[in-house]
Amino acid sequence: MRKAYLVFCLFVVVLAACGGGGAAETPLTLDQQMTNYEASLRAEADWLWSNMNYATTHARPETSQCAARDFKHKPVELDDTTRQTDLTAGSLVDNLNYVAELIGQARDQWKLFCDNQINSATASAFLESRLRPAYETLNTITTMLEQRITPSPVAQ
Q1: If pLDDT is split at 50, 70 and 90, which confidence band does 30 have?
Q2: Is residue 134's pLDDT more than 70?
Q3: What's the pLDDT at 110?
Q4: How far apart are the C-alpha atoms of 72 and 27, rounded to whole Å?
Q5: Beta-carbon neighbour count of residue 146 at 10 Å?
Q6: Residues 7-34, mean pLDDT to the nearest whole number
Q7: Cα separations (Å) of 15 from 1, 5, 23, 83?
């Protein structure tokens, strides 16, 4: 009896560790998708900002500094119906896409610096010209998401 109990407990622990036995994941809400995308874009912006600072003090980059990173961006897509019924979500997704474009341009410029095709001053100036508006927009997105997720206090 004791052995069966131990086997059962082990099974429960393994099942819990596997997240419920392989059941399908609960799909993320639209707000969760946008929050996750914002976080991954911010992480890449932070990495590029660090690289920009690096470029201001290094004429040529170290190989390790140029190693590509995967930020696992998952862009949010809205169908026409959702875009029309949730104007705020449409605006948020448009802003996320704008930030992704700015970050993509900064990433491409960083790669040019890593490939020794542009100098450090050009790279750092270009990165700053893209990352400042990216951060401003990310901060706006964060505020808008917090307002959507946080319920308004009930008037009494």
Answers
A1: very high
A2: yes
A3: 97
A4: 17
A5: 10
A6: 63
A7: 21, 15, 11, 39
In a domain, 1, yes or no: no
Q: What mean pLDDT, rounded, does the chain reach?
A: 86
Using a 10 angstrom Cβ sphere, with 0-12 exposed, 13-18 middle and 19 or more buried, the burial of residue 93 is buried
The number of domains in the chain is: 1
Which residues have a Cβ under 8 Å from the Cβ of 76 and sit 6 or more positions away? 30, 33, 34, 37, 93, 96
Q: Is 67 left (phi over 0), alpha (psi -120 to 50) or beta?
A: beta
Helices (H) and strands (E) in the chain, counts: 5, 0
Q: Residue 49: which domain range?
A: 35-58+80-150
Q: Report, in angstroms and rounded to the nearest whole number, the Rg of the chain calculated over CA atoms.
A: 22
**pLDDT tens by residue, 89-99:** 999 999 999 99
Threshold 0.85, pTM exceeds = no
Distance in angstroms (rounded) separating the CA atoms of residues 146 and 148: 5
Task: Produce one character per residue of 4-23: b if its CB has 16 or more CB atoms within 10 Å, e if not.
Answer: eeeeeeeeeeeeeeeeeeee
> Of 141, 126, 28, which Cα lies nearest the Cα of 88?
141
For the chain, the residue count is 156
pLDDT of residue 9: 42
